Amino acid sequence: MQTRHFVIAGLIALTSLQGANSVTKEGTDAGAAFTRLKTLAGEWKADTPQGQARLTYETTAGGTVLVERDTAENMLGMMTMYFVDGNRLLLTHYCMAGNQPRMQARSFNAQTGEVQFQFLDATNLANSNAGHMHNARIRILDNNHFDAEWQFFENGAPKMTETFHYTRVR
Question: Tell me, what DSSP letter sits at residue 49?
């Protein structure tokens, strides 16, 4: 009888630990992925065919939100917020298209520093065919370089993918 109580107590403890490390059902460790993304805090630049793009990252709300500000020559500014919600790592992208897609991290590779996000839903989206950012991928190469890829959907299909290679300014 006592053995059964120890087994039950062990299962309860194991279940509690599994919830504590923020692993989603897809296997993404939300906490670890978010911690890795926070290493981007600072200023970054990338050369693009349209001119120079600049990103700044900073944490706010007691370190629970990573704010990305995106500016580029001849382009309206945009903002993306990254945050952990329960066992999920989410982002909300405030797009110059006038909508706000939300995406969830579906995979995180701690060795390569790559986080892949997939579309969940969006606010201010006129209809399901309206143009919006749909998927994103961030790969942290080292302390001074990372790649970002953003996929834009329209009429239910990929319309274009933008890829950027960023270098830390400070």
Answer: T
